[in-house]
Amino acid sequence: METLGILDEIQALVCDKLQVVSYKWLSRNFLISSNAAKRLLQQFAEKHGSELEVVYSVSGWLKNNPSVYHIRLVSRPKLSEAKGDFDDNCSVYSVQACILKDPAALWNAEFVQAEELFKQPPTVINCLRDNRFCGVINSFVKRNPEGTSVGTAFLQAKSAGAPAPFRNNSAPQPDNISLPQHKKFQQSSPNISLQSPNVVKDIKNESHGAGARDQGSKPSADKEKDPELPATKKIKGASGTGGSLASMWGRASTKSKSISATTKISDCAPNSVATAEAQIFAREAVENESSDDDGENVKFKRGSNGEGSRKRRVVFDFSDDEDECKDAVSLASPDPPKSKSSIYPQESSKSAVPQKNNLNFVEQNKDDLMVKEDTDIESKKLFTKESGVSNDKESGISSSDKIESRIPQNDAVLKGEVINSAPNSPKRKKVFKTRIDERGREVTEVVWEGDEAEKKPDSSIIKKSDNGAVNTTVNRPSTAKKSPAIGGTAPLNPTGKAGNKKAGNKDPKQGNIMSFFRKECTRQ
Amino acid sequence: MAAMEVDPVNNHLQRKQSHYVSLDENFMIQKETYRGQQYSQIYFARLDLMRTLIYSLLPNWKPYLPVCTVLDLEEGKQCIIVGTLYKDMKLKPSILDEYSKERSATPLVKPHNFTHPDDYLILEDESGRVKLRGTVLSPSVYVTGNVVALHGKATGAGDYLVEDILEAGLPPQLELPYKSEEDKYVVFVSGLNVGSNSSNPLQFQLFVDHISGHLGDKKVQSIAAQIVQVVIAGNSVEVPRGLLNGQNLASKDQSRLSEPIKEVDILLTQIAAGIPLDIMPGPNDPANFSLPQQPLHRCLFPGSATYNTFRSCTNPHSFDLDNVRFLGTSGQNIDDLEKYSEANDKLAFLERTLRWRHLAPPAPNTLGCYPFTDRDPFLMESCPHVYFIGNQDRYETRLIKGSEGQVVRLICIPRFSETGTAVVLFLVIVVELEKSRMPCSQFWDPVQLMTT
């Protein structure tokens, strides 16, 4: 009989190798069911029990406390006593050479075995994984070693467009999203049952969400934020609902929410560096201009972290995000001059697609005079490239004001776009120069390297309008720059501030940034 | 060696099944954006929603009294005001204190209670605040964040003398299903604390063996076959915090850091291979700090997450099992209440949160919470049938009844690493239909499952 063979083996193990042989260990080792293993151990104990120590498991309802179901491991001498406390049964748990001091050692051999089984490649179905030797079987259990898990999560029901799969991303992951490693998720997914269909897309969302969100404080973005980042892109609709309550907080948007499309984009901070990917997305976004929702969000790819310091998004957070978004979007729309006077002061001249660090004012309505978002000019460049708009002109902005036509319709979409540092077009750089003009005002000029200067309305106006929110609008720090000419109000601190600004405290009493632009316009 | 099937297949017991619906969506932070907002919005949302609720209850309470805002109080005139309570506490720790103390890697443990006889309550609505006086309202019972209606009058001193108080009361409860054919059990366990000194792996292994059906003879296993759901309510793992001091980890330390979670994964695999399992994050788990805690990530459990029975859930966690509604947390809300208010026992705190209709009133005042902008996810919309709290000192349970026939089973789940006790709830529902009254139902007392 095979059992005899096993019994002999058990003896060898216990006596010679001094191992603790528990019934689970036995069942896994000899591939027998645990009930059979227990019977075997029982036989063994009867045969050789006198030389060895046997531990029994006693379980049942306590006699003196019937609402407690107790499971206890007892050694043989105490067995009868233990049985008395219970009104139930016992069975052999393990045999070993002697009683161990530390009861946890009973568990050791078994655990080592379990660990080995556990470490086998996920596709292997072993007795640990399918629980085949158990007395109770559950045929509804399914295991899916790769890809998404089978069934369960209601989360799975969410569409791919939904905010990042919670399971994947909402759990705190310190290194999540905030760093431009969206690829990382893609790699990791196959081995872990992530919801792979969603992963890639969400990662993108995350990464750009991250970019958007952050105003420079990305690296330190709190974990809490991260999970929502991907979601932010989708917020568009969601934030709208918050609007009613949020409006209580006096952040009534003064602008008309014109276009909604690509709302998400506006959410993004201009931090991230735009890549070709972004371009494509932006283009798609433009195409989907009217589409509301999740669809094609502009996905931003975070550039290297180092870029973070470069641009901040200036957010006049006098309204909900979606207002901003919408505003931003409207800016982008190609024509109606009235809709926005996108004045990009620094751009001043119609020329120049700014290469880097340029003030990018995405302006909402003329009326509003609120500069919503600051996007890096370079983002525009991408579009120009794509759309073939020359540097000098960007289509779309046709306001009577100054033509910051740099802003192609795509711009709005780009709102949050992060531009890569490499200029797409001419290799000229714009730099800021500050000087005091005849009226004693500090004037910031945007000058092509070695070229003519363009005047900008002075910083005082900006000062007024800057309520702290604007700090970064004006000066994108870039390598060449000098510190913000735009008055002391806006310390060029791309990294940190944006975050605060976001919180938005625009003081309506202060002048509007738009007046700055207008002036500029009229001057010309 | 060939597998020896001593038991023919048809002798195996089949595990019972049940219908599970997760209701955690409310607690997921999905569409929220953080725009740097502060907590005023969640307080406002809470006030708004609960005030509407309380207004609907006022006609049944004292319809003859006018309702006014705090700023419109007239001296001597009896009226009702509705607002959020704020408790001014002398001993409440302030963030500045923490800065003055030495900063250590381990969290400062303040288990004691901060109440003081001099604490007083203030009621606040959008218009203003007023200090509350009177013996009806005991400051030691209430905490900041409750929304209540008060009947009283303004005094000459500018205070409000409270004569009566109205809380939101238990939310409406769905009817329990009729008696089910089979007896089913739900097992609750919390505070496994794998990786800590106090946890005994043998105990947990015994527990796993029992519920999965390895241990014992046929009779015992048939009991185990009736377990349809396991809920792990937080603190499953204890990460060695000494390693987390901000330095880069050596690879040896990294493996030390991850060993506890691997051990948990192996054990959870053994459970998930047979029984549906819900795992919630707790205060010590590798999850986010503020409530609602988001589900533990699946990558932490590469082995068990592959099963369709494995569910990583939020904290607080809510689900329906065969139409019985469960709601519970890993204990942070009750522990916080315990620090800032007083009661006879833990179950009293649970009952209070139900009567206030809010899972965690001290959030975000003293309990970390996400700054929601347009909703407060801790408001209870419907009354659970089973309300559980994890990581408590000992097992306690009680059945409470509401004014509209709601019946709730309250359960305090003890820490397994310290007590070796898990809680088994029998889903045996006995419904007595009485012609003149609403059906009422009873739960059997839950059973303690102890391992030594």
UniProtKB/TrEMBL annotation, chain A:
Polar residues composition bias: residue spans: 167-179, 186-198, 339-363, 468-481
InterPro entries linked to this entry: POLD3 (IPR019038), POLD3_sf (IPR041913)
Segments of skewed composition (Basic and acidic residues): 391-405, 453-466
GO MF: DNA-directed DNA polymerase activity
Keywords: DNA replication, Nucleus
Low complexity compositional bias, start-end: 252-264
Pfam families to which the protein is assigned, alphabetical: CDC27
GO BP term, pick one: DNA synthesis involved in UV-damage excision repair
Gene3D superfamilies per record: DNA polymerase delta, p66 (Cdc27) subunit, wHTH domain (3.90.1030.20)
Statement: the UniProt record of this protein carries the keyword Plastid: no
Cellular compartments per GO CC: delta DNA polymerase complex
Domain of life the protein comes from: Eukaryota
Sequence segments annotated as region (Disordered): 161-264, 284-372, 385-409, 450-524
Protein location: Nucleus
Protein name: DNA polymerase delta subunit 3
Gene source species: Escallonia herrerae
From TrEMBL, chain B:
Compartments in which it is found: Nucleus
Protein name: DNA polymerase delta small subunit
Organism of this sequence: Escallonia herrerae
Gene Ontology cellular-component terms listed: delta DNA polymerase complex
Domain DNA polymerase delta subunit OB-fold, first and last residues per copy: 38-165
Gene Ontology MF terms in the entry: DNA binding
Family affiliation: Belongs to the DNA polymerase delta/II small subunit family.
UniProt entry tagged with the keyword Nucleus: yes
Keywords: DNA replication, Nucleus
InterPro entries assigned to the protein according to its UniProt record, in alphabetical order: DNA_pol_a/d/e_bsu (IPR007185), DNA_pol_D_N (IPR040663), DNA_pol_delta/II_ssu (IPR024826), PolD2_C (IPR041863)
Organism placement in taxonomy: Eukaryota, Viridiplantae, Streptophyta, Embryophyta, Tracheophyta
DNA polymerase alpha/delta/epsilon subunit B domain: residues covered: 186-395
One Gene Ontology biological process: mitotic DNA replication
Pfam families documented for this protein: DNA_pol_D_N, DNA_pol_E_B
Principal subcellular localisation of the protein: nucleus
